[in-house]
Amino acid sequence: MKQILNEVTERIRERSAPTRYAYLQRIEKMAARTRGPDRMGCANVAHAFAAMPANDKFKVVVEKAPNIGIVTAYNEMLSAHQPYVNFPEVIRAEAHKYGATVQVAGGVPAMCDGITQGEPGMELSLFSRDVIAMSTAVALSHDVFDAALLLGVCDKIVPGLLIGALQFGHLPCVFVPSGPMSTGLDNTEKSKVREKFAEGKVGRPELLASESAAYHGAGTCTFYGTANSNQMLLEAMGLHVPGAAFVHPHDPLRACLTRESVRVVLENTYQNRYMPIGKMVDERVIVNAIVALLATGGSTNHCIHWVAVARAAGIIIDWADFNKLSKNTPLLARVYPNGKADVNQFQDAGGPSFVIRELVEGGYMHEDVQSVVIGGLRDYCKKPQTDGTSLSWVDLPKESPDETILRTSSKPFSASGGLLLLQGNLGRSVIKSSAVPEDRHIIEAPAVVFDAQEELLEAFERGELEKDFVAVVRYQGPKANGMPELHKLTPPLSVLQGKGFKVAIVTDGRMSGASGKVPAAIHLSPEASAGGAIGKIRTGDIIRLNVIAGTLNALVDEDTWKARHIEELSDSKRFANAHGMGRELFGGMRSNVLTAEEGAVTWL
Fold first, then answer.
1. Which of 94, 274, 401, 564 is deepest in the core (most CB within 10 A)?
2. Which Pfam family would be a valid example here (predicted)?
3. Predicted model pTM
């Protein structure tokens, strides 16, 4: 793997040389300036610190003390973000101990995909990432900060904060998580109730009781979806205080780790340790993040988000890089939906620290990288603990305490990772193979074409899908309607698969960070709205999805296929997603967005 790791990294480095060089030049130019409070006009400085206590104002202006900017995604709609309500005061008090000052530079929007799934608001979800990036830039554009702490956890929020922070790559930055909620209803049981509801075997009261038992308190949802994959990747990139990812919001250790983030970010502002985020996040760090994602069977959404994150640092990656690394990265974790454990059980078994240690020692990750702590990536191979006042880190046992959840690199669940590239006459897509049973790795069945997820749900209700078929759900890409997740399709498709039918989905949209056991070729590019071949598929065409060969094809005579035109949406369908729930304001993003494989970026 070491050879493959180096080959992929070197290809990325060569491909990115011009853009990465230009990015680093911009960072150096920004870092060479006189600090903001000394450089700006007096009126600017007075405005910046007008509301500060006099003593803090004296420190930052006269004593030239470091000033930390907080960018927070606090709100009360996201269970994972509600605990952030008191974080600024904790951070401010800790900073004062080091003679530093703190200002909340700004807030960023943070929407909950769990609330908007299947609703019109979900069509704002993917683009909210770039809104968050822009909001982060607005917050930091006040330009009076020596470092930044970034408070965010969930799906689009972490990638957005990271993209925004990388535009200020001259600043030392540390991400400060809040942790997962305590374990509630088992995720597998929750899914069974959803399937029963889809079949009409239970009603809304039973379903609501089940969902409320699963999502019941402060913290991230406990399945290993996009939010918790974010935390795994930040650990692997060295952007957290080591071991901070999966500690409960109300655990005393959480407060200690939050206070430690202040010490760490200040340490990175010192001349002898100056470590800005833009310099730290290089090609090797991006590759380490991908490897960590693959080794844990993480969210498919990061095949989009981390492409965008890399671009923000001048680094160009694509799905072929994910695919090459996936084929050579062992699967070390089984966490729902590719296992039964939740993230709390994953943490108890060793969590990110165990995974990173195994990947580093096995030669699957670059060890020679910088992190926010002086010890580098090796410090992320240990588990944090506290005696109530101070922090320390301890070694983990050599063997996994629960091999149903975590494995060593010498005896993995699988020799390859959890995400693969599929290619063929339909274009390029990704599939989360780690959650799909091996007897479903090849699906060949007639297509049933839908132009909206509601059409599929209605066909299911009418009993029209009791057969082998491949659901083709098109016009769901970023240009069409903002690329909402199609997570509500999982229960009915799971029901049909459970009845013994061969079922799969092919779409230019997204599924979920919790993509499950139904084979799903997603993010198909080019999308239908950009003239992609998915628009040529007709109901009845035989579709072959082959995970083993890495192919996705419509088995249609070549001449017939070439002669076919793209089936365009009617005006009523095309404009149905343009209005309501604020979607009008995102029209420019839909027009300008790049492909999913290019990160669905709207700012290039």
1. 94
2. ILV_EDD_C
3. 0.95
